[in-house]
């Protein structure tokens, strides 16, 4: 007996234990021979691994033997990134090893995509008080919500909403409808036949889930016009996307319903940074440069430069746009999940952010992650094998989704 990641299952393998969904409904019975259709069903329901007969324990990942000029840079980058993490902790040790392995392999690129190098000529970064340009909460500029977001919020809040109600709202935005159809037809969901109507997608995936997913896409699209000289928006989007995907996987692994809500929360976790970069680019530059010169995280330098952090700014925006309260709280506590009303949900975003940075997919501008909530991490991820499974799933799923969001 042994556990196998769903994406590693082969036809003919036999289940050693029955498999249940998040609502304890039986999906596959013990003794069932695995078919390709079974793999698709397991992926749809968020099952990450199953126990099969005759499978030996998986071996630990081996660090590739790489000896070139990038190896030192990769190790130094990861060491700076995780300097606030306790690497004697088995879970973080595995996150570190997996990050190193995949960067050395070049799975997603050896180093994270960089944000633009901003230079503030003549600024003495050793004296942060000289660059303190604090903004008052009442002065923060916030964009108005696109009309479709207001309508989607109403749909989400209405318990009597039908799939047709959601489809009617989504179809008012051709670009949003096209994006959702690309997603549901991607290998990420693995449906065997083409889905060509939003109403059918809603029926299959779920009203709340598809409307939440649409909401996340709308919000991110509102910031696509940030100039490349201010922020590498493509790198930022890739980091946000993989954080959302890992959040969804971790939620499924913890038997949470509404995994798409966790995807949206992960996708939007750094939305406050986009506000700063779009409306206060000089402040954003100061935060990034102070972080680079002092090895502080941007989360830390924001308080010094702005007087508040991107979580607080996110709360202002998302509340103004009347997004669901659960999504708001998941996001605003993702650096301090222990203070959240639901620590486990914010903790999932916290862990997903940490793993995303380690793998080096895209960039949020951070060089080192802020303080880690180790007890909560241990509660959500109970073994080193769990981390390896999550990363294997991301390796398998990220390509199709990345292609969709990069269009």
Overview of the molecule:
The protein is mostly helical. The protein folds into three domains: 2-52, Molybdopterin biosynthesis moea protein, domain 2; 70-143 and 228-407, Hypothetical protein af1432 (Orthogonal Bundle), CATH 1.10.3210; 160-221, no CATH class. Helix content is 53%, strand content 3%. A two-stranded antiparallel ribbon has the order 1-4. It is globular, with a radius of gyration of 21 Å. Residues 118-131 have low confidence and may be disordered.
Number of helices: 18
The beta-strand count equals 4
Largest sheet: 2 strands, antiparallel
**Share in β-strands:** under 5%
> What's the number of domains?
3
Overall 3D shape: globular
Note poorly predicted spans. 118-131
Tell me the name of the CATH class of the largest domain. Mainly Alpha
Helix content: 40-55%
CATH architecture of the largest domain: Orthogonal Bundle
GO molecular function: hydrolase activity
Domain HDOD: 142-337
InterPro entries: HD/PDEase_dom, HDOD, RNase_Y/CdgJ
Protein name: Phosphohydrolase
